[in-house]
Amino acid sequence: MTAGAPVCSVVVPAYNEAAGIARMLDHLYADGHARDADVVVVCNGCTDGTADRARATGHPVRVIELEQAGKPGAIRAGEAAAATLPRLYLDADIVTTGAAVVAVASALANGAIAARAPARFDLTGCSWVVRRFFAASGRLPGVQAELCGGGMYGLSAEARARFGAFPDLVADDLFVARVVSPSEVTIVDTTPTVLSPPRTLSALWKVRQRVVRGTREMSATQGADSTAGTTGRELLAQLKHPRHAIDVVVYASIVMGARLAVRLRRSTPRWERDDTSRTAA
């Protein structure tokens, strides 16, 4: 961090991310802008040396280690250590730049309530079905404008003051998206965040079930706020172009199938993490 006050604090929860944490931090600091931010990496329940890898990069990050695994607890610990607002929350397996982080922080410091960078999916190595799924998803305006699902998001001081500690919920970004209204979300014109999606249908299927459970959990505790109607209309609009039909069928089949699978499953499975997209730098 530079000698002056940080422009924002950045919380990075990390669970067994040794394969990619160095890549993430190297990209973040490559352009020099991240030195204006206060970055806290919170390793929670890691057994693979994630903390050592983060420290070994030599970047000016603070690394916290928690024995207990769990993203909500990691976020709370990171917030307790964070130096300032606005505050950004980054997934540990994304690729972003310091310039993008500072751009989002600047937007939040100048009137934006909640914000994130645009998102781009790196489909290298993904199966045909996965590529079709994300082709349809990428043409959904509602999805592109949401605060959640972009691998990072930021909150202004005003937005962060609307709630206390992060609750124990699967989907932290979905919770935050309920705290602010859609009209208060700004997608900042900056370098897109690069996300690596599941590479196989099996991995995507598991992740989609996790998304469904997170949504159901949120509805049970915070009330229903489904975007299914809007998404359905946007999917139908894609059918005006025959070449998009197969993408729509793949997307709808996976989304609806995951909902049905969760509804039929009585027990609550362990956290369904995608390891197909996690590779060493």
TrEMBL record:
Keywords: Cell membrane, Glycosyltransferase, Membrane, Transferase. InterPro entries: Glyco_trans_2-like (IPR001173), Nucleotide-diphossugar_trans (IPR029044). One of its GO terms (cellular component) is plasma membrane. Its main location: membrane. GO terms for molecular function: glycosyltransferase activity. Residues 9-102 form the Glycosyltransferase 2-like domain. Pfam families: Glycos_transf_2. It is found in: Cell membrane. This is Unannotated protein.
